[in-house]
Amino acid sequence: MTVTSNMTTDEAATGSPVKAAVVVRTIRAQSRLRTSKKAVVAVQSALTYLLGEILDGARTAATAEGKKKVLPKHVNSAVSTDSDLQHMTGTWIIRNGKTPRVARPDTAEQETRPESAGTGRKRSADVTSHQYRRTVKLIARDKECLLATSTLDVLQTIAAEITAALAGGAGQAARNQSHDAVQAQDVRAAVEEWLTGELKAHTVRQIDTALGKATQTAS
After folding, report:
1. Which SUPFAM superfamilies match (predicted)?
2. Handedness of CA 39, 141, 126, 204 (dihedral sign)
3. Could you list the residue range(s) of the whole structural domain that residue 208 is in?
4. Is position 33 within any domain?
5. Residue 47 lies in a domain
6. Which residue, 2, 41, 65, 104, could crosslink 165 as a Cys pair with Cβ 3.0–4.6 Å?
7. What does pLDDT average to in each consecutive run of 10 residues of the chain (219 residues)?
8. Can you give the pTM of this predicted structure?
9. How far is CA 132 from CA 4, 44, 89, in A?
10. Is residue 1 part of a domain?
């Protein structure tokens, strides 16, 4: 990820379009634990890579239809035609004006389905997803993807869900290791538990690379 324009100093230093403060809040909300700076870097790099993979697939699907703008159906095509993304997304339902539902690493065995209409209930991702709108825009620009407004809405919710999934899984890994704060190794463990195949291998590699760069910057 090379986008730096419109980033804060912190974001430019890590090369991430993901706001650290948003990641910290999500980890605390999902795990009830403190978080290390390296854990934040790990989540930032994982989210950036995973969103990039979804956008690559969605852009390919749009191009195949002769469309310039990526629509929600193209996002759905991207995750449904790639076995690793399909495993990650579980039972997401992606439609115009609808947001996805995802099984998180710490609740992967629970059945997930869209909320019933008219319940008035909001999931954490519904409430916080707007915080990822800028993140999605930056990654889409880097990928040269033109997004419809409805697609941006879906992707910002996906971003929130991915972050929550990583935070929840990392929190569980931290508790299993009796850590009093979420560490980068806990985020790595969450990735290895949740993802499969090449997607898992590449995401872990992205995390390790980002941590290496963060260490060099700090020294």
Report:
1. Histone-fold
2. negative
3. 9-218
4. yes
5. yes
6. 104
7. 38 72 94 96 97 97 96 92 91 56 44 34 55 95 95 92 94 96 98 97 97 85
8. 0.82
9. 16, 12, 18
10. no
